[in-house]
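Write out this protein's structure.
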Amino acid sequence: MSLTLVILAAGLGTRYGGDKQLEALGPGGETLFDYGIFDALRAGFTRIAIVARRELELVLRDHVASIFGSSLDLEIAIQQLSQLPAGYSLPAGRTKPWGTGHAVLAAESVVDGPFVVMNADDFYGASAFQALAEHLRGAVGNDFAAVGYTVNETLSPHGGVSRAICEVDDDGYLVSVTEVKRIQREGAGLTGFTVSGDTVSVPEDSTVSMNLWAATRSAFPLLNAQFARFLEDSGDDSEAEFYLSEAVSEQIVSGSVRVKVIPTAGPWLGVTYQEDKEYVLKKLNEQVAAGDYPEKLFNPIES
């Protein structure tokens, strides 16, 4: 069975101040998504699909080839604001990307089987990809999965972060997902804001999805229908985003899918702000020193 890794790399990096998905953070000049590719290849994935803006296409191709060679099965899917369902047109004044749910839809034409979605600016750890690969090899129909982290392990000391808070039942399946923005420590606890702007308290042991999902191709018809409804309800709001996490939550509530939450100890690493970079550099070097990764990544399929 062919497994595809879909990397979401079209973000603008507004809080970071640039294209953080291309930031060299590893000792050999690797980006965080390079470690995702390396871990996915080791777990048995054979195809890589990167969702990107048009202006990043050649840069990404050259970068991936410099790390993994030109024989890697790589596809670049371009996410464009004008990629809309039939009968819809781009609203006047819309310049902001449509969100992570729309980014996944941009990869539909280059995904031919089970797949995993990851953020380009996150480091997830090898065990996460191994667990998702194992799940997908036995997945049937709408049997999806997500890797769960503890929110306290995914914070930045330099400002608020957006996280998808997961409610999980006693059997380990996802009940709902709530997107919470600007989560940060306030006194002895954590607070954040819902999409509608309400202040909420976030327990420190909350399970969060860091946008590492496993699904079959049956996810695409569901997402397409949901995106059309999103455009009907919120398409004229220039700031509204079609979040993948909220789309999955809606699918669960409607009974369309089941999502197994696979807990992991991580480590998770990410750069929301420029000030996060030093910590991530230190942790990656520790991983290399421990022998978890080589000093310079390569294509493990060819070794």
